[in-house]
Amino acid sequence: MVSLELYWTTWLKLVTEPFRYFGSVWLGILPLYVTLALGELYKSKVSFGHAVSNGFVMLWAGLNWGARLSGIGWTGYVTEFSKAQMSVAWLVTAATVALGVFTIVLGFRKKDRGLCEVLGHTRFSCYFLILFYPMQARLLRWDNTNVIAVLLFALPVWFVVYLLGRLIRAMIK
Q1: pLDDT tens string 37-48
Q2: What does the pLDDT look like over 65-92, one tens digit per residue?
Q3: Which of 78, 111, 133, 134 could, after both became Cys, cross-link 140 (CB 3.0–4.6 A)?
Q4: Within the chain, where are the H helices?
Q5: Which of 167, 143, 157, 160 is closest to 15 using CA atoms?
Q6: Largest alpha-carbon pair distance within the chain?
Q7: DSSP string computed for 151-171
Q8: Of 101, 161, 105, which Cα lies nearest the Cα of 128?
Q9: How many CB atoms lie within 10 A of CB 54?
């Protein structure tokens, strides 16, 4: 049985690893943190417009990952991937781009309110984008421990981000 401490330290490494490599921060992860912070501060309720903006964030991240994986973008990779890990990285990239385009179209069409409720939350999209980033940028390997850590702490982190957003909004008013 694996201890919770292992997943906690893994989660912390996923959050901090991109900042060890200065070149990986600016176009890759900093826009995600800014989007998360601004989204939590200024978006009080989810709308179709929020879904469109989150779709663009997902599209941006997916295109950024695609550029890095193909060698077009910043190439200071630390970790070599096996063929299986590279396949997973490309699959996640394609899924992110597809979900981004889907969310943009969904927001513009203004049809499915329920789906926009999920995809319109910045904490939903940004959490996964931020924590998948170190693996997608090949700073860390795609492995079960990393993925379990991302999933295990998703709800607690979303709740903390929600509370912090409400607290800061209340202090601003």
Answers
A1: 877 777 666 677
A2: 888 888 765 555 666 677 888 889 999 9
A3: 134
A4: 4-16, 22-24, 30-42, 48-70, 83-109, 113-119, 122-136, 144-152, 154-172
A5: 157
A6: 52
A7: HHTHHHHHHHHHHHHHHHHHH
A8: 161
A9: 30
